[in-house]
Hints:
With 401 residues, this protein is of the alpha+beta class. The chain contains eleven helices and 19 strands.
Amino acid sequence: MKQNTAILDIGSSKVICLICSAQGRDSITVRGAGVKEYPGFENGRFIDEQLFSSAVVDAIAMAEGEAKVRIRDLSVGVPASFSKLVLHEGSAGVKSRTGRINGDTIDDLINDSLTFEQPEGYELMHSTPVEFKIGETVTADPPLGQAAKEVSAVVSHVYMHNGFRAAVSDALSRTNLEADMYISVPLSASLFVIPEEERTDCAVLIDVGARQTDVSFIRGSALIACETLGIGGVSFANDLAYGLRISTQSAENVKRRYVYSLDYQDSIDIVRMEGKSPMHVDHAVIQFIIEERTKQLADYLVRMLKDMGVRLEERPPVYITGGGIALMRGSCEYMEKLMGVPLKVRMPWMPRLSSPNYASAFSVMDFVMHAEEEDSVDRLVGMVSESRFIKKIRELFGNVR
């Protein structure tokens, strides 16, 4: 494994660059971190590409300055807004001398599953079998070593929009860097936040960010559905700013102080704004504004999950992460009541920035570090994630997947 690993996570309100090194098998040290806010993106487009580019440059410079190293290789997380998911079936005959399924069989199966018209304007990032079928037997576990004549599988293919790659490449060119690997954040975050044993059947990750909410439906190590909802933490702040006639920054502070399901009775909140006298606001007004938006979010999520094929009545594991609402005290419990399903907030411990609003960044780091391990095939067998180096080798030998 490399001494240092660098990643770039592009959220809907900030860019994060992390430089980390491994400490043993399951622990890391954060050598450097850079966090830079920017206008973000909406509807699959950056609001201001110039400011985005500057945020990338600044975040990288901050991380390099703290770590006192120069980044040589960089992996980039791809948000759901710039991704596309396609499920397609493939099959392959077993060609090994022993008549048993091996890694080459799985590769042939994945290649066969790609025999459809590829999405225009998108580039493949990951291909992961959802479940395998041998005869009448269906299993989620890779059937390596099993005797068979043929194996088939539904394969999850995750694509990246070419416009996203172009914007990132332009920004990185200002630092003389190229992205070594692009990684789907809905996939990496689901693998990072949801324990493996809870993904054996199906599980859900709800990532409430600043400007949007991404909902991922995962089985094992494969995404089977992913959707985006245009409601995030900024929506709550904007509602408060409009309703109370205060600045967005003051509204954000009010949102952060709010505690769900707390009996405020007739209490008054004092809102302070720069250059103005303190403003006294009835807490009932704040409660009404925040809870109405929360009810809307919960209602949309329930409908979206049902449309994605999630059977909420079966109580699947549902996790919530991101900085949009997960950090608001009592939000998880309140959302549980509204959605009628248990919700869990989980952020694997990190030595720094150990908070749900950094889960996506650390998930990309975790994905890259495991991909670099010699035994990573045991963890993500059947998953194809091609780095820039591997792609160049494939192109050299005329074998591009």
